[in-house]
């Protein structure tokens, strides 16, 4: 029962709460097999071969009461999920039965795992790095095929290896600087500065390439934030319902029907969208509507894509013009809705106002132009992210933030060299870069960060 650590033995239910055919209670640690064996009637689990599964019953050793009929998997360190001894009890699904088994394990000496603690141990025991741990969570939360692909890719360690290589290169140049400092000669100083400069430029370039994939990664993970905006009653909620293929939002002929922001995830032609229906934007004295309008404006400012809906059956209003101005700098699509009625606004009307995009003439009511809206979403999406599906994508804010910090310290290196600062000062910024990259993989991450990060995981993971 050789384990690589001295951590205590933890237990948790690893399947979602609720009724199901089977639930899994998982144990990890030195005492996993002994504790499981203590409550198990069947084979002697302390004697079985690793990676075997056994039929039997869970029996409370205190009163010999039989609790459940189960299958128990025994996986001995180090080739396990945590690199510790792992036992998984496959019991009958059901909240009460599963909880009773967990309680029994706690009663005989296991400790209730914290959220993410199994994965944390896999990290602490060196099986995975932080980027892989984070990808486990991304995998669970993935809402689209692409998001899942990105997560699997990161779980395979591709980002980790790239970061590790960058750190290795920085380390080599830092080591060389040390040697040069030990033998200070004028030429050496020149040479060292040159070396630092070249490396800083090269690493900065690679970080830039990674960051360039960040936006795409974030969109795949969270969905392209798409705000449907327009003044009241133009058909925003009708369009949302169409795109969702579901009557989610309330639609009426009363202006001001939608009063709050409504968010829904949907896949439009392979593009993951976080669709945001908003309250019609206009000047109002209504207390509730006012708040709704403020929220609409916030959603608008945070959106990756804006769908601006105009009611083509009415002449362009002052509010329409304001919205056209307000969204001019954003990636947007203009929809001239209610084309089934007599049109007062045409594409030419907008072109005359200096609008460069071609509006989509549509009617949500008679289902005209709707496919075109969907196709345009796809075009705008891939247009914006250059459809160069790179293998490695940085997708979470923690990683992006650290890459930006690493990049900033490289710029400090270059600035310092340009100002002719002594090499040993420049060296400090280079070391900061190395540290920041190390935080991404967890090699130089502070304890609090690790604790905080894993606490966001779900229980039993
Ligand atoms: N029953 C069960 N199913 C599960 C999991 C689990 O923990 N239990 N997993 C939980 O997420 C996922 C599988 N992930 C795993 C990842 C690594 C190892 C593991 O034992 N790795 C060792 C040895 C690999 C080998 O035998 O070659 C290692 O990497 O050293 C196990 C599961 C999904 N399915
Ligand atoms: N004729 C016609 N009516 C439409 C069309 N699209 C929506 N409507 C109608 O316009 C009215 C307003 O639609 P909504 O979808 O509630 O409009 P909204 O923009 O969400 O309105 P607020 O939430 O009040 O800002 C409803 O009576 C819809 O049935 C269309 O293409 N043609
Ligand atoms: Mg509405």
UniProtKB/TrEMBL annotation:
Positions that bind GTP: 233-238, 252-258, 277-280, 337-340
Residues annotated to bind Mg(2+): 237, 258
PANTHER family in the record: TRNA MODIFICATION GTPASE GTPBP3, TRNA MODIFICATION GTPASE GTPBP3, MITOCHONDRIAL
Domain TrmE-type G: 223-382
Gene3D superfamilies the UniProt entry points to: P-loop containing nucleotide triphosphate hydrolases, Probable tRNA modification gtpase trme, domain 1, tRNA modification GTPase MnmE domain 2
UniProt function note: Exhibits a very high intrinsic GTPase hydrolysis rate. Involved in the addition of a carboxymethylaminomethyl (cmnm) group at the wobble position (U34) of certain tRNAs, forming tRNA-cmnm(5)s(2)U34.
Residues annotated for (6S)-5-formyl-5,6,7,8-tetrahydrofolate binding in this entry: 26, 88, 127, 461
Keywords: Cytoplasm, GTP-binding, Hydrolase, Magnesium, Metal-binding, Nucleotide-binding, Potassium, tRNA processing
Residues engaged in binding K(+): 233, 252, 254, 257
Superkingdom of the source species: Bacteria
Cofactor note: Binds 1 potassium ion per subunit.
Subunit structure: Homodimer. Heterotetramer of two MnmE and two MnmG subunits.
NCBIfam families from the UniProt entry: mnmE_trmE_thdF, PRK05291.1-3, small_GTP
Family to which the UniProt record says this protein belongs: Belongs to the TRAFAC class TrmE-Era-EngA-EngB-Septin-like GTPase superfamily. TrmE GTPase family.
EC number: 3.6.-.-
Protein name per its UniProtKB record: tRNA modification GTPase MnmE
Localization, UniProt: Cytoplasm
């Amino acid at each position: 029962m050789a384990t690589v650590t001295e951590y205590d033995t933890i237990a948790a239910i690893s399947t979602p709460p609720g009724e199901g055919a089977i639930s899994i209670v998982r144990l990890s640690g030195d005492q996993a097999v002994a504790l499981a064996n203590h409550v198990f009637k069947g084979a002697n689990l302390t004697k079985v071969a690793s990676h075997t599964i056994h039929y039997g019953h869970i029996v409370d050793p205190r009163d010999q009461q039989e609790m459940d009929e189960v299958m128990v998997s025994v996986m001995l360190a180090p080739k396990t999920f945590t690199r510790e001894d792992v036992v998984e009890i496959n019991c009958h699904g059901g909240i009460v039965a599963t909880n009773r088994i967990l309680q029994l394990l706690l009663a005989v000496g296991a400790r209730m795992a914290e959220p993410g603690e199994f994965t944390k141990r896999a990290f602490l025991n060196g099986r995975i790095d932080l980027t892989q741990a984070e990808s486990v969570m991304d995998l669970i939360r993935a809402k689209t095929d692409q998001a899942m692909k990105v997560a699997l890719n990161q779980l395979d360690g591709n980002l980790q290896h790239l970061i590790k290589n960058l750190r290795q290169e920085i380390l080599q140049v830092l080591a060389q600087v040390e040697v040069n400092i030990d033998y200070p000669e004028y030429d050496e100083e020149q040479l060292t500065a040159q070396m630092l400069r070249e490396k800083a430029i090269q690493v900065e370039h690679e970080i830039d390439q990674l960051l360039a994939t960040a936006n795409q990664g974030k969109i795949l993970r969270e969905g392209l934030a798409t705000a449907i905006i327009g003044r009241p009653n133009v058909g925003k909620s009708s369009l949302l319902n169409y795109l969702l293929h579901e009557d989610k939002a309330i639609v009426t002929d009363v202006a001001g029907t939608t009063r709050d922001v409504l968010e829904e995830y949907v896949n439009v032609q392979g593009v993951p969208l976080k669709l945001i229906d908003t309250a019609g934007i206009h000047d109002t004295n209504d207390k509730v509507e006012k708040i709704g309008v403020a929220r609409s404006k916030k959603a608008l400012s945070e959106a990756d894509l804006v769908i601006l809906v105009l009611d083509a059956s009415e002449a362009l209003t002052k509010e329409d013009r304001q919205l056209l101005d307000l969204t001019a700098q954003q990636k947007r699509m203009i929809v001239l809705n209610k084309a089934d009625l007599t049109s007062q606004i045409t594409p030419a009307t907008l072109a005359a106002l200096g609008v460069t995009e071609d509006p989509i003439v549509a009617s949500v009511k008679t289902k005209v132009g709707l496919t075109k809206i969907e196709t345009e979403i796809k075009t705008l999406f891939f247009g914006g992210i250059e459809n160069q599906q790179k293998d490695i994508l940085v997708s979470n804010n923690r990683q992006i933030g650290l890459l930006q910090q690493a990049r900033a310290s490289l710029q400090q290196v270059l600035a310092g060299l340009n100002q002719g600062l002594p090499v040993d000062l420049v060296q400090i910024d280079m070391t900061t870069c190395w540290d920041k990259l190390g935080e991404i993989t967890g090699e130089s991450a502070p304890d609090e960060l690790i604790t905080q990060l894993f606490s966001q995981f779900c229980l039993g993971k």
